[in-house]
Specification:
Layout: H1 18-29, E1 38-41, E2 46-48, H2 61-64, E3 68-76, E4 79-81, H3 83-96, H4 105-119, E5 123-131, E6 148-155, E7 165-169, H5 177-180, H6 188-199, E8 204-206, E9 221-225, E10 230-234, H7 243-251, H8 253-257, E11 263-267, H9 271-275, E12 279-283, E13 289-295, E14 298-299, H10 307-322, E15 328-330
Parallel strand pairs: 7-8, 7-13, 10-11
Antiparallel strand pairs: 1-2, 1-6, 3-4, 3-5, 4-15, 5-6, 9-10, 9-12, 12-13, 13-14
Length: 339
């Protein structure tokens, strides 16, 4: 009978004061490397370097309703890569999600740069969110006094990805274009798609849309090099407009000029066309390119990492390290540095 399970053990749940709770949290972080050296929150209106208080209110609508958007920017050698491009997409996503910003664009930008400087971290990434904000647990955000802006610095010693991976075609339904084209926090389909691949011994998956065209990976774009040496990426009309993918298309013109590539463009790509490619790769901020050598247990091309894939990876990596203009924003770690 219910209630008669002898294996159930009564638990005495402690009630902590704020001082006691802070001590418990500090104990959890004791002796651990801090992977998040700084966080900004508009909820308390500033930056904290203490991981024990890097938190979001439980009644924030981003937490319990998924009403929020986010974006990221890579940090390399003390420079933020493509910050402005990502920030522009971030605000486009917010507009689609009907979330207003508590600050003008340039204030958001300044906050992100100041947070990165305060962290002293020079390699990793920053991630930032706009939320409908805290207020209640209802469906509508009408009871939320104001939207919220959160951001965090992530310390990560990443490097170029030069080893090839295996992928599968996802059976998890793809998001409809209205949601796929905005970078919102509703990533459950993406998570399930990634888990499905891992369960089959693959790195990640490929989504195919309802018309039979290649869409994207779970959190990355995908690109192909045809046997005619054409660089092809799926059109961005039904999927997320990848900042790194668009930068790749621009940089690829250098290989076209050298005669190594015939062309670089977006198109509707069928599964048959894609699987007949000479080379295949994921494209995303943190990679920036990840070679793909096997798809659904079938080799791509000769099953080896291709020379053109590596050449494109080198172009993006060099752009991250020494790109022109506002591709790279110098973080003013020291007093007197300029933004």
């Amino acid at each position: 009978m219910a209630g008669d399970d002898s294996s159930v053990v009564d638990v005495s749940v402690p009630v902590y004061s704020s001082t006691e709770l802070l001590a418990k949290l500090q104990e959890k972080w004791k002796g651990q490397k801090q992977p998040y050296p700084a966080m900004y929150s508009s909820f308390f209106g500033g930056i904290t370097l203490d991981p024990t208080v890097m938190s979001i209110p439980i009644d924030d609508h981003m937490v319990h309703r998924g009403h929020g958007v986010f974006d990221t920017a890579m940090l390399l050698d003390g420079y933020l890569y493509e910050l402005d491009t990502h920030l522009d997409r971030f605000l486009r996503s917010a507009a689609k999600a009907k979330i207003s910003s508590p600050f003008p664009r340039e204030t958001l930008r300044s906050i992100l740069i100041q947070m990165t400087a305060a962290s002293t971290c020079k390699k990793g990434s920053i991630r930032y969110w706009l939320s409908a904000g805290p207020g209640d647990f209802l469906l509508s955000p009408a009871g939320c006094p104001e939207p919220a802006f959160y951001a965090v610095v992530i310390d990560d010693d990443y490097s170029q990805c030069k080893e090839g991976v295996k992928v599968i075609t996802s059976t998890v339904p793809i998001k409809p274009p209205q949601f796929a084209t905005m970078k919102n926090v509703n990533y459950l389909p993406n998570v399930l798609s990634k888990m499905e691949a891992e369960e089959q011994g693959a790195f990640a998956s490929i989504w195919v849309d309802e018309d039979g065209f290649i869409a994207e990976g779970p959190n990355v774009n995908v690109a192909f090099i045809s046997k005619e040496k054409e660089l092809l990426l799926p059109s961005f009309d039904k999927i997320l407009s990848g900042c790194t993918a668009k930068r790749l298309l621009a940089l690829a013109s250098q290989l076209v000029e050298k005669g190594l590539l015939k062309s670089a463009s977006t198109a509707n790509i069928t599964v048959k066309q894609a699987k007949d490619s000479a080379e295949m790769m994921y494209v995303g901020s943190g990679l920036p390119i990840l070679p793909i050598v096997e798809w659904d247990e079938q080799p791509i091309g000769d099953g080896q990492v291709g020379d053109l894939t590596l050449a494109l990876s080198d172009l993006l990596w060099e752009d991250m390290k020494a790109g022109p203009g506002l591709q790279r924003v110098c973080v003013p770690y020291n007093e007197g540095d300029t933004i």
